[in-house]
Amino acid sequence: MPGKQPNLFAFREVNGLATALRSYIITCQNAGLNRHDVFKVAVSGGSLPKTLAQALLAEPKSDEDVIKFDKWEIFFADERAVPADHPDSNYLLIKNELLDKIPIHRGQPIVHPIDFEQLNDTQELADAYEGTLVASFAKGDSVKLPIFDLLLLGAGPDGHTCSLFPGHPLLRETDAWVAPIEDSPKPPPRRITLTLPVVTHAVRIAFVATGGGKKEIMREIFEAGNGLPCALINEAAGDRVSWFTDEAAVEGVQFPRRSFL
Ligand SMILES: O=C(O)[C@H](O)[C@@H](O)[C@H](O)[C@H](O)COP(=O)(O)O
């Protein structure tokens, strides 16, 4: 892998992973607040929201260990083409796991769901969500790409992340910030997703991948690459990428682990 390598952290248990993830997110949050007095983060679905909730809802251990939700602006890395109250909705998942359990004062944190109730056409929906990103990240200026402070992503057993699937033409998208997909190999087929250039442009990108079911694809991502979406992100963003895994997920993976300080 050329250039700087991603950080691979492997924890014995998800508890240790969640503690480290909390501390990593606070570091990213504080950097975002220093930069622009807001923390702009995008999240995806799968098992991530549950681990995220475990990390973020934990009791603070010190005065520095503070999650400033009132400064957060939360976006979605991808979404399925279903209403926000549908069981397949990533928004519903994160709402149930996390948002309903944190204090919301005066509309803070700001949450930007992708709501298929308003528009059912995936291209129109992608354009509308891109408009949401433009309003937040560009503010009237011409900006080539949005810069998220942090993306919190999962890794599928086929090496997909967001709704960017292996071998899919969407991986070659260079202009759009948000794109529709009508033929996702993982159901449901209709979705919208952040594009690869947006993902790799983020200040920090964190993947959470746990369980022995991930070890084959983790080997492929870290040892061969094979153009898998997760590997493309590792290659493009290098040490801006951090993988939070458990030992089961990286058993046999030939790639140096870093210790989490
Ligand atoms: O939209 C989806 O289909 C899921 O959100 C999916 O992208 C998920 O994030 C990965 O498959 C990892 O899932 P796990 O973390 O549950 O393994």
From TrEMBL:
It catalyses: 6-phospho-D-glucono-1,5-lactone + H2O = 6-phospho-D-gluconate + H(+). The keyword Nucleotidyltransferase does not apply. The keyword Hydrolase applies. SUPFAM superfamilies: NagB/RpiA/CoA transferase-like. Its EC number is 3.1.1.31. GO terms for biological process: carbohydrate metabolic process; pentose-phosphate shunt. Residues 16-241 form the Glucosamine/galactosamine-6-phosphate isomerase domain. It is an enzyme of class 3 (hydrolase). Hydrolysis of 6-phosphogluconolactone to 6-phosphogluconate. This is 6-phosphogluconolactonase. It comes from Xylaria multiplex.
